[in-house]
Backbone:
């Protein structure tokens, strides 16, 4: 199965030349490290950065240059910095081609829960609501099961929703899937992972058609 970097590598294959891409907090931030060198794109962070690069090497960090998750980042030539109002105008105006988010749960109809666990203090939903409401192309990066081994790909989300019917594709440590009108469609399996393992780890409806190829990462 994949680790977090493996998930990011698989999602990086979905990034196309000329895309403007928003990277959410967590695993999505790693995607910038694995994008092909022969394409040009712009990574956007909701705290007001356009033109993010990969994470800096140890010792090269600049504490004044951070992403929405308060991690130090690098910027590429031509990068720009702006206020949150401008950043969210980009998001709400649908000027972002691809949004990559982490999640705690995803339902088989594309619902996503990624901002609150009941009983735990949080500052608020943040920009997640705007991202899922405005984006037409959302890929989720997540672990297939929780620490107790319970599926996070569900028939219905049990946690408070961030967005309804918005997720298009999902990359987990076990599989790459597409959300369809009939449930999760299995497109690829992680190296060394069997279809049976994915079936057993998925609570929601899982569509398995033909031979499922192994990811090429």
Residues:
């Amino acid at each position: 199965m994949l680790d977090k970097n493996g998930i990011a590598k698989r999602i990086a294959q979905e990034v196309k030349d000329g895309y403007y891409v928003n990277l959410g907090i967590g695993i999505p931030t790693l995607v910038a490290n694995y994008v092909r060198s022969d394409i040009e794109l712009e990574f956007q962070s909701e705290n007001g950065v356009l033109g993010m690069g990969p994470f800096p090497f140890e010792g090269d960090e600049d504490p004044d240059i951070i992403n929405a998750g308060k991690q130090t980042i690098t910027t590429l030539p031509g990068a720009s910095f702006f206020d949150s109002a401008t950043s969210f105008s980009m998001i709400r105006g649908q000027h972002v081609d691809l949004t990559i988010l982490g999640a705690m749960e995803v339902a088989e109809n594309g619902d996503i829960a990624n901002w609150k666990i009941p009983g735990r203090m949080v500052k608020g939903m943040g920009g997640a609501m705007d991202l899922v409401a405005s984006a037409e192309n959302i890929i989720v990066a997540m672990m297939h099961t929780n620490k107790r081994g319970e599926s996070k790909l569900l028939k219905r989300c049990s946690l408070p929703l961030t967005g309804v019917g918005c997720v298009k594709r999902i990359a987990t440590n076990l599989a790459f899937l597409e959300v369809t009108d009939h449930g999760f469609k299995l497109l690829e399996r992680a190296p060394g992972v069997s279809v049976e393992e994915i079936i057993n780890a998925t609570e929601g409806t899982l569509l398995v058609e033909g031979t499922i190829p192994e990811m090429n990462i």
In short: Residues 4-207 form a domain with the Glutaconate Coenzyme A-transferase fold (CATH 3.40.1080.10). The chain has a mean pLDDT of 93. Residues 4-12 form the longest helix (9 residues). The helical segments are 4-12, 84-92, 128-134, 195-200.
